[in-house]
User: What shape does this take?
Amino acid sequence: MQRRVVFDGKLLPYLLVAPQLAVTLVFFFWPAAEAVYFSTQRQDAFGLSTVFVGFENFAAVFADPGYLHSFQVTAIFSVAVTLLAMLPALLLAVMADRVVRFASVYKTALMLPYAVAPAIAGVLWLFLFAPGIGIVANALKWLGIDWNYLLNGNQALLLVIVAAAWKQLSYNFLFFLAGLQAIPKSLLEAASIDGAGGFLRFRTIVLPLLSPTTFFLFVVDVVYAFFETFGVIHAVTGGGPSKATEILIYKVYYDGVVGLDLGGSSAQSVVLMIIVIALTAVQFRYVERRVHY
Amino acid sequence: MATVTLSAVTKSYAGNAVIHGIDCVIEDGEFVVIVGPSGCGKSTLLRMVAGLEAITGGTIAIGDRVVNQVEPKDRDIAMVFQNYALYPHMTVFQNMAYGLKIRGLSRDAIRARVDKAAEILQLGALLERTPRQLSGGQRQRVAMGRAIVREPQVFLFDEPLSNLDAKLRVQMRVEIKRLQQRLGTTSIYVTHDQTEAMTLADRLIVLNGGIAEQIGRPIELYERPASLFVAGFIGSPAMNFLDGAAGDDGRVVLAGGTVLAATAPAGSGVTVGIRPEHLVPAAESEAAAHLHVDMVELLGADTIVYGTLGEGGPALLLRLAGIAQIAAGTRLPLGFPPEQLHLFDRATGKRL
Ligand SMILES: Nc1ncnc2c1ncn2[C@@H]1O[C@H](COP(=O)(O)OP(=O)(O)OP(=O)(O)O)[C@@H](O)[C@H]1O
Ligand SMILES: [Mg+2]
Assistant: This one.
């Protein structure tokens, strides 16, 4: 039996959730509402007058080849980041789970990227890969690879994918490790007595039992790739060269803040919001049902 | 079917010895129970047979094959774990079929074996459920089913009944015994419950602090315990122990002055053991001593009398068949049947 603390009075519960609600209201609902509002308005070039234009901004956005290109980039980017953040994290977690000596040293080291702010992480990768001065860039040049992500769009995309995935690796690692450690040892022992070798045990016991963790991380990583990678991209490529790394969230910023197209930018962010809501809903509805046991 | 041979088996964890050299040959088809208090190394020993713990010293052979370096999966054993260790994401059928599938049996063969096991264990209606939809007793049976479908050389059980309630435990105990007799598979069973041990075992290994105190048939251990530890561990309620000493003529005299019809090497300190069910009320004229009764428990089938030997003497338990109306405070004349006395060297704890 769980003991529950019961408070008298109606006010206290509201008071306790009030700070959280206030934060959510100010930093989420208010901007979201503003975005929805501005997505139906058009401002003149000087910001002096706005008129209601209905869905015109949306029509313009979807007619823009740059926007569709950004969609494509985002798809590649988010799939690649999610995979690249999850698979190595799982591998590292499996290995860290087996380490007996100095386990905490490894774990701490693997946690470090998470403690680094996105923009700083971006700058770190910038230093490593900057053509001409970066250590890795020079090593690549020495190996005969023509490395210049400032000119080569594919290289730029690869670089921001790796940088963004690296940043998220720790988070995934931590959850995978916790997930692995929550699997009772006796299950694996039973499987090995049943005749399963290491790889088979992993595939038939560990992976299925990790699936709730995997699913959770998948959702978190996709959302991360969509939204939280702004800092990395801003620091490393600024969306370039020639929009090769301009994912949707970056385009929202660029068109709105740099291009001063408030209506178009708002329409984009509304689209983005709908995408993420839909994505999450679909994931929870169809994937979650299969991963619980 | 196979014998299991333990030769001078030892185990240490980081230099700490927990098993100190066990020798035992478990015959083909035999049901051996390893019993002992918590922490004595029962699970460790069993897990070494299973291959889940490395063997520090000595050898373990299954059949003629020394298995020290053999992986668990290649030992042809099956194990029932204390927490059952059922695969939570698989149905009962899949749980039982898992090992067979890995061994590459055909679908029909798997179906046939699982159905047979399910019938023996009355699991037929549960095959499509997952473990969390089962009661404790049903889970236990699935764990048994998973072991028997494999038709292994040896069954290993690590306290498989300890998570069940008392009634179910008795019922499953009988089922396990029946099943083992029917299948005739060599079995090693770990428990700390001496009733389970006595009822299931063809032979018992009493383990104490990583040492096999005694190995033998349950009745042998009951009738001739080799040490104080075994004497106190086997039998319920536990044996009474009384301090005594052998006089110059070798006759054993209890601390209270009671002279017993038993002899020991002259001048030695002895501990005298007698089981509660072997003490007998005597006529006043023939009484060797008196029990000062503190408390009486009427259990119906028998009566347990608590008291002390003489006023303020050592505690003594008496068990009488049937219902005996004895009031607290009574002074009960007792006899010590000489053939039921167990004498132990007080210094070494060994039987004299
Ligand atoms: N992995 C380990 N590392 C160090 N010591 C261990 C380890 N496993 C067991 N031991 C020690 O070995 C001894 C025997 O443990 P074991 O689990 O075999 O006891 P047991 O007889 O099965 O007890 P119980 O009835 O409580 O299950 C204990 O003293 C325990 O502390
Ligand atoms: Mg144990």
About this structure: The radius of gyration of chain A is 23 Å.
